[in-house]
Write a structure and sequence with these properties.
By secondary structure, the chain is an alpha+beta fold. It has helices at residues 10-23, 29-59, 102-112, 124-137, 147-156, 163-179, 182-192, 202-210, 219-228, 241-258, 263-270, 279-283, 289-297, 318-339, 384-393, 427-432, 436-446, 448-457, 479-490, 526-541, 599-611, 626-631; strands at 72-78, 84-90, 194-196, 199-200, 309-314, 343-350, 355-359, 401-404, 423-426, 501-506, 511-514, 556-561, 567-573, 577-584, 623-624, 647-648. Strands 2-1-5-10-11 form a 5-stranded mixed beta sheet, with helices on one face. The termini are far apart.
Amino acid sequence: MGLFDQPRKKPARRAAKKSARRDKKPMTWEFRLLVLLPMYLLALGGLGIGGAFVYYTTTIPDPMALRHKENAPVVRLLARDGSVLAERGGAAPYIPVDLLPRHLVDAVLAIEDRRFFSHRGIDPSGLGRAILTNLRAGRFAQGGSTITQQLAKNMFLTPERTLWRKFEELILSLWLELRLSKPDILELYLNRVYFGAGAYGVESASRRFFNKGAKDVTMAEAAVLAGLLKAPSKYSPAWNPGRARARAEEVLAAMVEAGFVTPIDGVLNAIAEVRFAPPKVMRGETGVEYAVDAALDRLPSLIAADDREIIVETTIDASLQRRAQQLVQDAITAEGSKQDASQAALVVLDTDGGITVIVGGRSYGDSQFNRAIRAKRQPGSAYKPFVYLVALEHGLTPDSLVLDAPIVAKGWTPTNYDGRYRGQVTLREALARSINTVAIRLNMIYGPRKAGEAGYRRGIRSELRPDATLALGTSEVTLMELSGAYGALATGGRMVEPHVIKRVKTGSGRVLYQRPPEKKKSVIALQHVGALNDMLNAVLVSGTGKRAAIASHPAGGKTGTTQDFRDAWFVGYTAHYVGGVWVGNDDRSPMNNVMGGGLPSKLWHEVMTVAHEGKTPTPLPGTMPAAPLASTASDAMKLPAGAPQPWATSVRTGGERRTPLLSSDSLN
């Protein structure tokens, strides 16, 4: 048999392979889901983490270099009289961890991260416990963060609570553990963490609360400091020393449980005397904090200057600012609890728009949120003057008659606060008594769009919805912009732009910024200013704002109260100042019958009384003093031809009377 006559076996082997492939079962979707998918995800996750490590290493070469960061410039803020309002910047006290007493470090570790020296940035048991707690609570109630995670968050991340931010925190924690030693991480953490009352870092906190350096604190004092880390405001000795001590006892118990101290030492330190610094020192409050923050927020981008000192000249009246902050705090403390009002804000502007006073809340120590410039709330009837201004610009006068009667507009049936309807009333009386139906009727006659434009032209920047409810102040605005818009009535029609910085210069005298002169832009004709000033003066003389009236000083203003008493306002002015007050709750919960004519008017009166000490009483622009008008009826005839008609501030001069505007069913 020849070579080529041998039987071929390849076809048989090929057939066997095909048969084996037929017998082999395909991978099920369960197998792919349970085995392969996790493997792929793990591989992708590893690549992602590796990429993140490379990114962090190239962008943050040495985290410990942050402790040697060059000191920031000293920013010195001056009040309008040239006195020092505050200083910010400069070096923050930094203390190496090996100079801190052992019991201070142990206190922090016992209550914050007991396994700090054994984990690698993430504590699985603590993380699992936090997840279970959050699932039971149905919300994000516990973070389970290690000290490394907290440091990563403080150094590199925003405080928002999202899954992506938490993932970034975990990756950064692992990266920090690779780059730094445990003592280095602990040192950075203790020098950066927030202890409350404006104190960042353990050295600042120790000096703030105990008037001593961190290396000198006792074990009992160290327990107080460590206890602050969980909730700096809640456990702050500046506001609640008893709660701070109770929290310190929990820290001492944790130290005993962790084996850092003996049970006897724990008990002795739990009953040991702790001497806190005076409350004013602990709180770090001087009454000007909201004003300082407002100025720093508006500071132009000039800090890149070479000089190590920057001087900011502000418009703040330091004495009046401190007095106003105290008056707001006293009023909310004394009356807020019984009236369910927890917060207030107040601003005072001069007639050039310079912010003289800005109080952003009851207490800066409790909350640094500035409600005067950041909180948008419904102004209620405090917006009505802009509706009446449109009517005046269309030819009406304070003595024109309008019908106060029920209105039905597209199924909406607004009512007056007292449920009464007075028939024909003058514009002056309608505004003084804050009659809703009249404001709505005027708004519908001349158009909501014009009422909105009237606010925009005077400086309001928030959105004003052009609908019928605008007359009742349903579009939200800030206290600052509403007060600035009223400013045109105090200046004779000139636009007022609120500002807090006059000039910025370096320590060597080089001017970095100079506020340009006011443009004197007229936004209201003088005759309309006078008419509206007459009407808003009636609010204080015989209307809803009588509690706001200032002795000897003609003033105008308007109260505002929103639905369910959620917001209460008074915004008013004299020829010297414009001021606004808001009272309410941050969560928008209803107050107990707090109206604009009550607590806000009282606060406005108290602050403005102080502000006008030594000021000469001056008629409101566009008006005449009451006495001369009462003594001679011919005074008005002495005006040059074409001059705008003045209005009396207290004595009415008998203006034009018109036919009542519309009947009760005209808006149906």
